[in-house]
Each structure stands twice: as C-alpha cells, then as structure tokens.
Write a structure and sequence with these properties.
Order of helices and strands of chain A: HHHHEHEHEHEEHEHEHEHEEHEE
Distance between the termini of chain A: 77 Å
Helix content of chain A: 40-55%
Shape of chain A: elongated
Strand content of chain A: 5-15%
Number of strands of chain A: 12
Oligomer: homodimer
Largest interface: A-B, 77 and 76 residues
Largest sheet of chain A: 6 strands, parallel
Chain lengths: 349, 349
DNA sequence: TTGAAAGCGCTAACAA
DNA sequence: TTGTTAGCGCTTTCAA
C-alpha cells in the first residue's frame, strides 16, 4: 500500500484516547487532561512529554465525552433553524452567525424548515438531542411552547425575523410593517393610486406585517383598501409570476406593485418582463437581493440587513449562554428604502 | 411568574435522564433504553408506561452519551466545509447535502473556509473533535494529508469541486476544463479572436482547470495564447471589475470575455455596464447565478449543477458510513452551456 | 504539582 | 421479556 492509503485498507483503527496518551507519556490521565485543556499546574517538561505523546498518537480530544462529564454540559455547538439555507436572506444570516460562533470556538448546526411547522419541531428536537448550547430560530410554526422544556434545561433561545409565540424569549426582528408602509408611501409619493400587493404565505407573521404596512400607507394617503388588488399565499417565483400576470391583466390594472418578499419580487419582475411593461409599471420589493441593481430598471427595495440581524442574534445568544439572566428583549432592526429606478416610475395607463 | 416563563426564572432545571424515566415508570434503565430506541422485546403495556413517563418528564435522549457508549460511536452528524455558506454555489450544495442527511436523521455542521487553508485545518479539527461521522469538503488547502488520521479512525470523507491532494478519498468534481473550453469555443464560433480571461485565485485548482480549458479552446482554434489578455487572482467583484476595465481600456481590447467564476462574471458585467458596452462585448461566465437570465443582455454561462454535486457527494459519504469499502472513486459531473444572449454577441471593434 | 477514584448518561454483554 | 453490571472517554473531587 502506498502512502496514499485510502478507505480500503482494512477496518478502522481505533482512535487514541487520553489513556493512551497518558500511558505513552508515562503520566496519569488527569495530567493529560490538564495539558489538553490548558489548565495550570503542570510543569513544562511534563507538559512537553504529554504534547509529544499526543502528537505521536494523533490524539483528538472527544468533545462528546468531555461535555458529558463537564459541569454545565456545554457542547460548544449551537443550532440554526432557517427558512432555507439556500435562500439569500437565510444564508447571509447564517454567515453572520457563523462568524460570531467560530470566533468563540463554537460550531453551527444548520437546517432548513421550508415553512413547515412539523419540520421545525422535528429539527429542533434533533438539535436538542445533540444538546446544543443554544438555538437561533427563524420559526415556521405559530406556537413555540414546545421549546419551553429546552429553555428551562438551559438551552439559550433567540428568535429572528419572527417573534416567539406562547414563549418568552429574545427576538431580533425587522420592522416589516413600517418598512412596507415606507415602500408603499414611496409609490404614492410618485403619484400611484392603484397599487397592487403580492405577498408570501399569509400564515407567516412577517407577511401579515408587511400587508398591514401596505394598508397603513394606503390609509394614510386616503386611498381605499382594494382587496381585489391583494394576492397572498405566493410560495414560489412561479406562483408570484402568475399572480402578477393576473393582476396586470385586469381591466384597470394597478400602475404599481408592492412585492412582500424576495422570491415574490422576482416573480413580479418576470411577469412585467413577459408583458414588456417593466418600464411602465412601478415596482418596490421587500427584502433586497443580489443583482437587484443590475436589472433594468434597477429594482427599488425595502432592504433588511440580514447580516446585522444575524450578528445581533448571535451576540444575544452567547450572552445568554454566558449566563445573562436579564429579562428577555426584542430588538428591532430598521429597514431601509433603496431607490434604484423601478420604484420611481410614474403612473401610466 | 406567568406561563410565559422566560429565561429569568432561576437556575436551569436539570434534564430528566433515562434513570428518572425508569424510576417514574417503575422499570429498569435498560427497558427505557429499549423503548426509546425502538428495540424489540418489550411488552406493549410496559412500553406504554415508559412512554408516558418520558412524556411527563419531557425526556430528551442524550445523543452524546449514547454515541459514546454505542459500538462504532456514530454521532449521526456530518460536517460540511464550504468556501462560504453565503455564496450561491455553496448554499445550493449545502441544501442538497442537507436533504439527503435529514432523510437519514443526520444533522449537518456547516462552516465557511474563505479559501484559507489554515481555517480549513482548524475547522476540520473542530468537527473531528465533535466526532462527525463524515466530512464533505470543498477544500481551500493543497495538502489534505492532515485528514489521514481521521480517515483511518473511520471518518468518511468526500471532496467536492476540488480533488484531494496527497490523500486517497472520494471526489465529486465538475469538468471545469472541458466546460471552460466549451464556453470559449462558443465565443470562437461566434467569430471572436481576441478573448480575454478573468479568473479567480490561481492557487485554486478549479481556477487552474478553467484557465487551461480557455487555452485548450484557443489552441484548438489556432489562436495564439495572449498572456496579456489573462487576469487571474481576482477575489472579489470589485477586483474583477477593475481587471475587466483595464482589459477593455487597452488599445486593442478583447471583443469577448470569459469569466472563470461567479463573482468574477458579475464584476465583468459591472465593468461593461459602466462603459456602456454590455451589448458590444460578448461575455460567457463559468458557473450560473440567480437572475442571470433577467439581465440585459441575459448572461450566457457554463452552468455547473451544485445541487447534483451535493446529492452525489452525500450519497457517496453515506455509502462509506454504511461500510462501503470499495476503492475510492472520482465522479465528474458535466457542465452545460446555457446560451442566453451575452455569449452570442458578434465581435465589434 | 500530580494522581486515584467516582461518575456524567447511555448501551453492550450477559444473566435471570 | 426484563434486569444487572460494566464501561465508553472524559472531568470532577479529593487525596497524596
């Protein structure tokens, strides 16, 4: 066999344990433990012998065994439950959380919920079974009482983007209602009177907030609420595209659209393109997305800051893990209107 | 205190253990273990009592303790080392791996390497310390011998996008050389003779492959290799934009560009936009990205299939975890040229 | 400064 | 079918 030894050279060799290292170094188990954990009270020559033995045996401490015995039982691992690890909002949040975690030597378990409440419960359970020190959740469910046992057992908990329901926990939210109102007001300010709304699944609290913001802005402008211009429950780009096409195919179509989410905005753009009306019908989307500024017209959005939300959530989580027992807080991260062109088109037709 | 008990009602309550469940149910520890693990040989009335007790105590099995004792020591957790969890290639791969893992009850630890070899070694170590059953790696380093000890200890290992070096392990690769050659041939076929190349960090094997493919296609077309039209080591959109601007500002600028990576393609688009030449200079990018089809002109790409690569990598990994000891394999996933407009522009100037 | 003994929560091996 | 005992790899506690 060459040095490129592969996966086929026989059964797995057992890993070296602390015992093995102790035996090779001629010291006790506890001395090895002290050296490995950087505890004081070991003379340098002895420590050196231990390190040499560990190196020779390619020793890797077993964190599972360690945290089983250690008081507090920390695993140096946290869980992150996201709508979908592959969506830009989730993955920007993920990266920000990771950066805070890695700096503390903490590993991150991530999973996608697909807006499925059962999946949330299942995956939170899977993480709890692995004894994560904390959980950052962008929830899909609407009753988070099932997490109370974990919380009482000492698992830190931070909700992001959507508040905890029937549970008291920290939260980091974007102000979707004010942000949406701001986006719609922007359209009103450019002269629009018939503004369509395209929204995500109505059971999602953020989708409700954004619709409410849309209504707030209409009311503030003295415009009638037109339920026939509102389409909710759009789960995919395709559904959003169809809904936008339907709205624009009406006898008196809206002169502007407000899209309540990432993928919905993209569906609306596709619909406008297909009709060749992207320079005629104004569009403001909630939540920014990559390349929005390179489209023509560039897309005006109400931008959230997923990275800031992730960093904040991780800081809150680690503060709890470090023993903070202050009353829970809800932090609201502001949104920001980014005018790029599509939202500044004047009404036509 | 209300039922919305928060994080401030005193010290954490200890978790119920199997012992506690056994005591409450009036059975032995082992009987609880059998019920929890769905092992046969427990009568239904007894099993029911155990389940009731577990429910009452909100019992959660401790997977760490379980895998410490269990022969094989599986943790039902795998690690995923990616260039950056927030980049579209990585996150599409991540999602595909997750889907295979979750179906098996396996959790996924994910981390970003940022093309930093030291970070790779550190994070692989952090995962090994947590005794992951397997590791899927898109490596940043160029010597993977450091993983041999893990491999021998039974950790399954699959490399994605870049082959293992000085180590024998399974790999799932895209055929970057052939794909890039295909993209450049496409430009040649549309009449281009001066084709610029913009590439990622030259130390990355895939970047080298793609540059080689570019050269292959030029040679096959009888065109001279023009090192002055090649720019490598572009790490960011901004760097790619500058490099593209420099190339296009030459006395005899290229009539077409081949961009060797995601972000580089976007930088090239920004440069062309800034010059107002996006309808004059042809562009083919390696690796697809969201909304490429909505830009004007829509962007012709050599598409990889990160989801297919992730699914395949996960399947290979779990086959190894399940005991497959066949010789290691390298699977090459084909790329696909997607003509959308930018790559079909004729030469000008 | 160093080490011996006990035990974290669980499963393997074996006994009743 | 059910239970008992030992011990996974490590840290805690306490003694030398």
């Amino acid at each position: 066999m060459t040095s490129l030894s592969g996966s086929d050279d026989g059964p797995a060799q057992p890993r070296a344990t602390m015992r093995d290292v102790a035996a090779l170094a001629g010291v006790s188990l506890k001395t090895v433990s002290r050296v490995v954990n950087g505890e004081p009270g070991v003379t340098e020559p002895l420590a050196r012998k231990v390190r040499a033995a560990a190196e020779r045996l390619q020793y890797r401490p077993n964190l599972g065994a360690s945290s089983l015995r250690r008081s507090g039982g920390r695993t140096a691992t946290i869980g992150l439950l996201l709508p979908d690890v592959a969506n830009p909002f989730s993955s920007a949040l993920h990266r920000a959380v990771e950066d805070v975690a890695v700096a503390r030597g903490v590993a991150v378990l991530a999973a996608s919920l697909d807006e499925d409440p059962d999946r949330e419960v299942r995956l939170a359970g899977a993480f709890a079974t692995r004894r994560v020190d904390g959980l950052i959740v962008v929830p899909a469910s609407h009753d988070h009482g099932y997490l109370r046992a974990e919380q009482r057992a000492g698992t830190a908990l931070v909700f992001v983007d959507r508040p905890p329901v029937l549970l008291d926990a920290d939260a980091v939210l974007a102000d979707g209602r004010a942000g949406a109102a701001n986006g719609v007001r922007h359209l009103v300010g450019h002269g629009h009177r018939r503004i369509g709304f395209l929204g995500d699944l109505a059971t999602i609290t953020t989708a409700q907030d954004r619709l409410q913001g849309y209504r707030d802005a209409l009311a503030a402008a003295g415009l009638a609420d037109r339920p026939d211009l509102v389409r909710s429950d759009l789960r995919t780009v395709e559904q959003a595209e169809s809904a936008a096409l339907a709205l624009l195919g009406r006898r008196h179509p809206p002169t502007a659209l407000f899209a309540g989410q990432n993928l919905v905005t993209i569906g609306a753009i596709r619909a406008l393109r297909r009709l060749g009306r992207q320079h005629e019908v104004a569009l403001v989307g909630f939540d920014d997305f990559p390349l929005a500024d390179l489209l023509e017209p560039a897309v005006t959005v109400v931008a959230q800051d997923p990275a800031a939300m992730g960093t904040l959530a991780a800081r809150l989580l680690f503060a709890r893990i470090d023993g903070d027992t202050d009353p829970t807080t809800t932090r609201v991260v502001p949104t920001r209107l980014v005018p790029r062109g599509s939202g500044e088109l004047p009404p036509r037709g």
